[in-house]
């Protein structure tokens, strides 16, 4: 099973930027979906940015469009999430995930493998 390791979280002020990284133990082409989710305490985990089909354009939920950008470096087996214009409401644990079936359920995919998460805290 793939192992995912996130990094890059931290504390920033509102309006700031962060780039999160997720190193995978396997090549991305082994999985049909890879992306970023986040979980705010007391709320269900939600999508932030996802590659749903290898080679296709990424999917961004409406609330995230224009402020986040997902990219990957296949040579390094690394997935990135660039976040800009951060708001206090973006404070959450951010997770990297991979899936073969890509069947959504609640706050993820039915067969998702998750990283341990990286905390992002945005202060006003």
Structural account:
By secondary structure, the chain is mainly β. Helices cover 0% and strands 48% of the residues. It has no helices and twelve strands. Strands 2, 4, 5, 8, 11 and 12 form a six-stranded mixed β-sheet that branches. Strands 1-3-7-6 form a four-stranded antiparallel β-sheet, with no helix packed on it. Strand 9 and strand 10 form a beta hairpin. The radius of gyration is 13 Å and the shape is globular. The protein starts with a strand and ends with a strand. The model has no long low-confidence stretch (mean pLDDT 93).
Quick overview of this protein structure:
The chain has strands spanning 4-7, 10-13, 18-24, 33-39, 46-51, 68-73, 78-83, 92-99, 104-105, 108-109, 113-114, 118-123. With 124 residues, it is mainly β.
Explain the layout of strands and helices.
Blueprint: E1 4-7, E2 10-13, E3 18-24, E4 33-39, E5 46-51, E6 68-73, E7 78-83, E8 92-99, E9 104-105, E10 108-109, E11 113-114, E12 118-123
Parallel strand pairs: 2-12
Antiparallel strand pairs: 1-3, 3-7, 4-5, 4-8, 6-7, 8-11, 8-12, 9-10
Offer a few descriptive terms:
single chain; six-stranded mixed β-sheet; 124 residues; mainly beta
